[in-house]
């Protein structure tokens, strides 16, 4: 909704004429739903900042949020939304801080006295504030999505460590759901670790994977195949009794890939193989 | 006579996360129905396969999870439905190792072996509905 020039002028006028009263009322109404989770001073500072920006934008001829004139106002609203999203406020609580301006405007203009002219202005201003509020809402949603994406990326990094378990043995303890994106990360990291450490053995531990279905098995099989191509041998450990029975019923074939019930069993198996390799190397000398 | 105990829970399947949610719902229902750990794992895995099929081949749909009682035993029933392309050759789709995607080709056939009751209704162009039931022993 775009204000016409006179409506914008009158809004600018009332904002500067009743500046203090509006600021006070706006801060009060905005702080109410935040229930003390954000200090009154902080919320007041934000609304005051918005008020100042609104005033200067109006002076520069911004009659809506669009275009170059509304750019600074948009930036400020986006910043407010981002701050609130990070602090864990809801979208409504954030947008209410903007909508609160309506109450402050109504009570401080002639609209409260029921003058028709003033009411017409108020309706136009109100729609303008709605636009600001909706923009805040959208900015908030965007900020939240950004945070979620960042967190899931961080989680992905955290949840797929490749650890050196022994000289020549690396292990990947998988925890949680193994979807395609994570399987890809696991594979890349494991293969890189194999190169970096020069390990001939890798253990993939699936103790922490709650449900092993064909997709998980497929990803594990592909990872093992890739490691084999690089000359490393993989052992899959952490096959619990219920998982073993389910894998058999599903008909998944792990082929000649060694599988063990626990990580300890897998390590024991690898150490045996390592000492056998060492003996063989000695004999050859 | 099979009766539903409590309210059935609906879960839309439109993303990978929803497959995880279906798994969690089924696991909770399986615990409520007092299935053994092995049976819980089996029905959860079957649900996981079918939910993923609903998503990948059916283009999304929904799952309805409920706890059922046939007088003697309790169990878990899950109904998957989608409005996707349907399955043209059911027998082929239920063959071990056959896949039209890039998987192992064991999801549908494996899921059938993991549960006691498996009903598949499909019509090309209309969609597919699969109902599975796992009973406590």
Task: Give structural attributes.
heterodimer, A: 285 residues, alpha/beta, Globin-like, Transcription Regulator spoIIAA, five-stranded mixed beta sheet, 10 helices, B: 137 residues, alpha+beta, Heat Shock Protein 90, five-stranded antiparallel beta sheet, 4 helices, globular
Beta-strand proportion of chain B = 25-35%
The domain count of chain B comes to 1
Distance between the termini of chain B: 17 Å
| Sheet with the most strands, sense and barrel status of chain A | 5 strands, mixed
Order of helices and strands of chain B: EHHEEHHEE
Mean pLDDT of chain A: 87
**Amino- and carboxy-terminal Cα gap of chain A:** 87 Å
The helicity of chain A comes to: 55-70%
In total, how many beta strands of chain A? 5
Poorly predicted sequence stretches spanning 5 or more consecutive residues of chain B: none
Structure, described:
- The complex is a heterodimer of chains A (285) and B (137).
- Chain A has 10 helices and 5 strands; from the N terminus they run H-H-H-H-H-H-E-E-H-E-H-E-H-E-H.
- Chain A is an alpha/beta fold and 285 residues long.
- Chain A has 2 domains: 5-153, Orthogonal Bundle (Globin-like); 163-284, STAS domain (Transcription Regulator spoIIAA).
- With 137 residues, chain B is α+β, with helices and mostly antiparallel strands.
- Helices cover 36% and strands 33% of the residues of chain B.
- Chain B has helices at 16-32, 37-56, 90-93, 107-114, and strands at residues 3-13, 61-69, 74-82, 117-123, 127-135.
- A 5-stranded antiparallel β-sheet of chain B has the order 1-2-3-5-4, with helices on one face.
- In chain B, strand 2 (61-69) and strand 3 form a beta hairpin.
- Chain B starts with a strand and ends with a strand.
- The mean pLDDT of chain B is 91.
- The chains are: A alpha/beta (285), B alpha+beta (137).
- The A-B interface holds A 177, 179-180, 210-215, 217-218, 221, 241-243, 245-246, 249-252 and B 16, 20, 23, 37-38, 40-42, 44-45, 48-49, 52, 96, 103-104, 106-107, 109-111, 113-114.
